[in-house]
Amino acid sequence: MTAVDQGNEQAPSVRIGLYQPDIPQNTGTIVRLAACLGIEMHIIEPAGFPTSDRSFRRAGMIISIV
């Protein structure tokens, strides 16, 4: 029985997790995709590039940090 069958019309929660990403350009693309779709995204460190706020701002990847 699905959530819709039970009268709950909420869609299932979707999240993206990147496990030790190595390519910052690909990570940035996935960050922007997650922001456009309104879904959670997590980076599981260590990454192959700096993951500080400053590095993300410099790469233009700051969408919103909650």
Description:
The structure is a single chain. The chain is an alpha+beta fold. It has a domain of 44 residues. It has 2 helices and 2 strands, in the order E-H-E-H. The chain has a two-stranded parallel ribbon. The longest helix has 14 residues. It is elongated, with a radius of gyration of 15 Å.
Briefly characterize the structure.
By secondary structure, the chain is of the alpha+beta class. It has two helices and two strands.
List keywords for this structure.
single chain, 66 residues, alpha+beta, 2 strands, 15% strand, elongated
Give average pLDDT, whole number. Answer: 77
| E-strand count | 2
Structural class by secondary-structure content:
alpha+beta
The helix/strand series, from N terminus to C terminus, equals EHEH
- What is Rg? 15 Å
Number of helices: 2
Strand content: 15-25%
Portion of residues in helices? 25-40%
List the helices and strands and how they pair.
Layout: E1 15-19, H1 24-37, E2 40-44, H2 53-58
